[in-house]
Amino acid sequence: MAEVETVLIVGGGIAGLTLGRALHRQGFTVELVELSRTWRAEGGGIAVQPNGMRMLHALGLDTAVEQAGARLRRWQFCDQAGKILSESDLAAFWGDVGPFIGIERTRLQQVLVAGVEGVRCRLGTSIRSLTQHDDHVSVAFCDGSSGNYDLVVGADGISSTVRSLTLSATPPAYTGAMAWRSIAPIRPRGLTNLQFHLGKGCFFGLCPVGDGRTYGFGNITEPRTYEPLAGRLDRLRHRFAGFAGIVQDYLAALSRDEEIHCGPVDWVAVEQWHRGRVVLIGDAAHASSPMMGQGGCMAMEDSCVLAESLRRDTTVAEALESYVARRRPRVSWVHKESDAVAQSFRLPPDMRNTALQQHGDQLFQRRFAPLVAAP
Fold first, then answer.
1. For domain 6-70+104-171+268-346, which CATH number applies: 3.50.50.60, 3.40.50.2300, 3.90.1010.10, 1.10.10.10?
2. Which single residue of 79, 158, 190, 368 has CA 20 to 30 Å from 17?
3. Vertex 177 angle, CA 284 and 266, to 5°
4. Is the pTM of this model over 0.90?
């Protein structure tokens, strides 16, 4: 085991909570700080794909996540009128890796927070500075407190403070798309599958989650903009007014501007993920576009691989090097394929739709095949 006893995790999202669970179960002394004063998860829903569920199974959390969500069996691409262009059998493709689960982010976070019982968690706390020494990292917090840690992990997302203080101050890059996310209290037309309805320069996705509810996510290629809250629901309905009836059923079930989360889709690709005794995981290291729906799953894999490396290797340097060596090729694949999907969605609709009709399932299987094997 690496010469690590105390670990500070900065960030209480999927990456930080998963890592907190993994390290605590292995006997490390863990402290987690989160900027928000309450546990909250924005963005509507998420698909926890089988490679992510494999990590949760190893941590004893998969059953709770499956019970709180909905099992999905097919991934479908449709045109704007709702015609299915291609579909993939998720159970047949992933085999015994695990189920494919749609779940509200708040429900997923509840499971992950319960999983860090016994970990010291400080809400409403952020780091002000950190100073590296040969054998520890000194951290000053915004509340005036301070502490020394054997390892500091930046799990603080796409706008990571740990990254900017330690490795790179380069801001995230805009991918050229705005995302609109929400949860509706219905399953439109008895929806049971994950669907992507493709328009010109945009798409609208529908994902069943738990309790008969549905996660809806719109993606529009356009200049980066700020979407004020007032009138947000009307603007969302207007932007997707030409889409099929099932999308209209979903949009009609929304009732308040406050139900709509809207923001830019940004990208992070830094050369270094660690320096000294500081390391990045999840979106802090490698946020990508959501076209493969793998952001949360990559964070879960990062967390489990980092915990394994710290347990197996004899020095911090060895553990962090082996973590990066195992993770970078897989993350780079997801980055590349996410960008390829984004570009394909921007093709003329007739060309894109024909390609999906002829090769959609084959493309899906090629895209996800490297993720079937354990990380």
1. 3.50.50.60
2. 368
3. 10
4. yes
| Ordered per-residue pLDDT tens for the chain, 375 residues | 778 999 999 999 999 999 999 999 999 999 999 999 999 887 799 999 999 999 999 999 999 999 999 999 999 999 999 999 999 999 999 999 999 999 999 999 999 999 999 999 999 999 999 999 999 999 999 999 999 999 999 999 999 999 999 998 889 999 999 999 999 999 999 999 999 999 999 999 999 999 999 999 999 999 999 999 999 999 999 999 999 899 999 999 999 999 999 999 999 988 899 999 999 999 999 998 889 999 999 999 999 999 999 999 999 999 999 999 999 999 999 999 999 998 898 899 999 999 999 999 999 999 999 999 999
**Cβ contacts of residue 276 below 8 Å, gap of 6+?**
132, 137
**Domain residue ranges of the chain, discontinuous segments joined by +:** 6-70+104-171+268-346
Which residue is listed with tokens 């501007």? 257
